[in-house]
Design goal:
Layout (H helix, E strand, L loop, with lengths): L2 H44 L5 H12 L5 H20 L22 E7 L5 E2 H10 L3 E2 L5 E4 L5 E7 L15 E2 L1 E6 L7 H19 L1 E4 L8 H10 L1
Amino acid sequence: MDKEILRIVIIATGLLVIIGMLLWAFIRNRKTQHDMGLYEDENASKGVSKPQSFQEDEDDDDLGIALSGSDKRGAYHAAKSDQYEKEDDDYYVLEDDDYEQAPRFVAPKIIQFSLIARDEDGFNGVDLVNAFEMVGLEYGSLKIFERLDSNRLVDFGVASMVESGTFPSKNLDTFYCPGIVFFMQPEAVDDAQAVFDDYVQTIQLLASELNGVIRDHQRQPLTEATIQMIRQSL
């Protein structure tokens, strides 16, 4: 066979093979598209949602993102993240400053407790002096009893519930008072808490010795809670 004819036959055969492959690919692509259309129609009739990948693509179209592949997925998740952050902004987190704090108790300039006699006649002068000596109180120039520190300075004083507030230096057996008043000035002492502890302990000892009722600075029965509240404020 002539070489020229052989070349023509080979070329023609190659063209036929290429045309056949193109036709086969075209037919296969049409069949795939047809099957996909049937699948979507069937799912739509059954109420089945589209696969996640198709939903992501549609979400991308709504967000105006014209990307493909991994870039499209990254943009999709970024957009969703922004959406969650915006939703989080709607929630307000209370800071410490937003809570209204209760005002801190401030001790009065002069802490004044009282001891009221249970007996209708009140406290007798002789019983008072004996009890005062027992707890180490001294009779001072102002005619009241005082607690003195190591430098002979006054930590706190005790006055009587009579018009003058003083105690007589004689005829104690005829003296009666309905109660006694204790007063302490925290700013005038070196260690206010230590003096206050002695102040409370002294009153409690006298209450037991003289059979009296302790009242706080508001003339209410003294409680441990009130004692601690005042002590912590010093």
